[in-house]
Design goal:
Elements lengths: L2 H5 L2 E5 L6 H9 L18 E6 L2 E7 H5 L7 H15 L2 E7 L6 H11 L5 E6 L22 E2 L8 H12 L14 E8 L6 H9 L17 E8 L5 E8 L11 H17 L2 E7 L6 H12 L4 E6 L11 H12 L7 E4 L8 H15 L5 H14 L4 E2 L2 E2 L2 E8 L4 E6 L7 H14 L8 E6 L5
Bound molecules: guanosine-5'-diphosphate (2 copies).
Length: 456
């Protein structure tokens, strides 16, 4: 893979079987490439084709290349899958229609789904082989996708050029400078942790203001306190942080029932409403059950996680590798937080306070990372060949293909011969391989497995 692979915009061609998707792609690619390779197995790049039209480069995804390989599967599911692939990947979507057979309810259903994606969608009506058939496109205006473009994929009638023009006009600006264009971001962070670990002190140190009331008496900051502050990034854009300090989760036995319920509920709500969870620990007292619960809550909500070990000034006998030793020790009590970014700070001395915001920004960005499907498949294929799934009673897990369905948290969908054959340890292995290949540090990663019959 080269850098230019990554920045080429992607165009997905979707539509019912037999409308002429493959024919159109052959036409667009300009070569009569046979698209017949539908061996079950992890799909590699066979559904991606590079197109150059008057100097604009883009890659076409043949979504049918993924999904039409399994004709035994219900139609609707294949169409849904095409839409999912297009949604996950494409910058522009072409809905291909058949001018010969006319509009069908399935075309309408696909159009409805696509309209919701908030991506440019172009309706193209194929098999308009002669100018006198051009009237056949009229009924497709009803799809609500703008002016349909008449094409003849088979004969390369002039409309194909119109389609290419329309695609190019809808492509995002391809100049690399605009790829990561500086834009202002607001990140909401939930500052959670037990009472007295230093949440209010940290919030004050971060915002440079006495926003939160700090007190020696546990529970003073009972209500959530919000503070916002802004940092200018290296690219000139600004990140605004809105930090919510929640009252700590208090030990059940020690507080009246009402307050405890309120606090727990508030922390959970703050996590759900935030973009990133910052769990504050006290370097001296370590991890408690409440911290475990907060990590679980955060994970369940799919939030990126930063673990801030505060009161680092209180730790004596620090050695060069104390961070590593501490990290291992703390994570042995918080195994579900092992993906988190962990930093060691002191609200009292201000040591490494700024790094909290670096970590929050990193976790936020990593949670929004989107990986192209062909790269996902490459990693999964390599992982599988390195360490194939175990075969149980002659049945082995066969992963047909994989795609990243969502970001925040990154969610990978693996289509396999039988989802039940995916065991937890193998799922963890694949997650580990994905994490080794792509930087998701600080973010949870999810793997969903769906059953698909493979063609024999
Ligand atoms: P896909 O299933 O959507 O990929 O469709 P194919 O590309 O395999 O095409 C299905 C059938 O439609 C084939 O028999 C093609 O030859 C035919 N076809 C494709 N494009 C055109 C066209 O522009 N005009 C006509 N008349 N037939 C076409
Ligand atoms: P909260 O209940 O989690 O909001 O905790 P507070 O911010 O109210 O802090 C509880 C106590 O810990 C206060 O006495 C703080 O002065 C103290 N404290 C907070 N951060 C630090 C730190 O980094 N080092 C030391 N030594 N004390 C701290």
């Amino acid at each position: 893979m080269t850098a230019s692979d990554r920045i080429k915009p992607l165009v997905a061609i979707v539509g019912r079987p037999n409308v002429g998707k493959s024919t159109l792609i052959n036409r667009l690619v300009g070569a009569r490439k046979a698209i017949v390779d539908d061996q079950p197995g992890v799909t590699r790049d066979r559904a991606y084709f590079d197109v150059d039209w008057t100097g604009r480069d883009f890659t076409v995804i043949d979504t049918g290349g993924f999904t039409d390989a399994r004709p035994d599967e219900p139609f609707a599911e294949r169409i849904n899958e095409q839409a999912a692939i297009a949604q996950a990947e494409a910058d522009v979507i072409v809905l291909l229609l058949d001018g010969r057979s006319g509009m069908t309810p399935i075309d309408q259903a696909i159009a409805n789904d696509l309209r919701r994606l908030k991506k440019p969608v172009i309706a193209a009506v194929n098999k308009i082989d002669a100018p006198q058939q051009a009237g056949d496109i009229a009924e497709f205006y009803a799809l609500g996708l703008g002016d349909p473009i008449a094409v003849s994929a088979l004969h390369g009638f002039g409309g194909v050029g119109d389609l290419l023009d329309a695609i190019c006009a809808a492509l995002p600006d391809a100049s690399p400078d605009t790829e990561g264009e500086a834009s202002d971001t607001t990140i909401r962070m939930a500052i959670v942790g037990r009472p007295n670990v230093g949440k209010s002190s940290l919030l004050n140190a971060l915002s440079g203001q006495e926003r939160a009331i700090v007190s020696e008496v546990s529970g003073t900051t009972r209500d959530a306190v919000e503070a916002s502050f802004t940092r200018t990034r290296a690219d000139g854009a600004q990140t605004r942080f809105v930090a919510v300090d929640t009252a700590g989760i208090r030990k059940k036995s020690k507080v009246p029932y009402g307050i405890e319920m309120f606090s727990v509920d508030r922390a959970i709500r703050a996590i759900r409403e935030a973009d990133v969870t910052a769990l504050i620990l006290d370097a001296e007292t370590g991890v408690t059950d409440q911290d475990k619960r907060l990590v679980e809550t955060s994970n369940k909500a799919g939030r990126p996680l930063v673990i801030v070990v505060n009161k680092w000034d209180c730790v004596s006998n620090k050695k060069p590798n104390s961070h590593e030793t501490y990290r291992k020790e703390l994570l042995s009590y918080l195994p579900h937080g092992d993906f988190a970014l962990m930093i060691f700070v002191s609200a009292k001395t201000g040591q490494r306070i700024e790094r909290i915001l670096d970590a929050v920004e990193t976790a936020y960005a990593n949670a929004r990372r989107r990986i192209r499907t062909h790269l996902v498949n490459q990693v999964i294929a390599e992982a599988v060949s390195l360490h194939p799934p175990p075969v149980i009673k002659n049945r082995g897990l066969n992963i047909l293909y994989a795609t990243q369905g969502e970001v925040d948290p990154p969610t990978f969908i693996l289509f396999a011969n039988d989802a039940k054959l995916m065991k937890d340890d193998y799922r963890r292995y694949l997650e580990k391989k994905l994490r080794e290949s792509f930087d998701f540090t600080g973010s949870p990663v999810r793997l969903a497995v769906r059953t698909r019959e493979s063609r024999r």
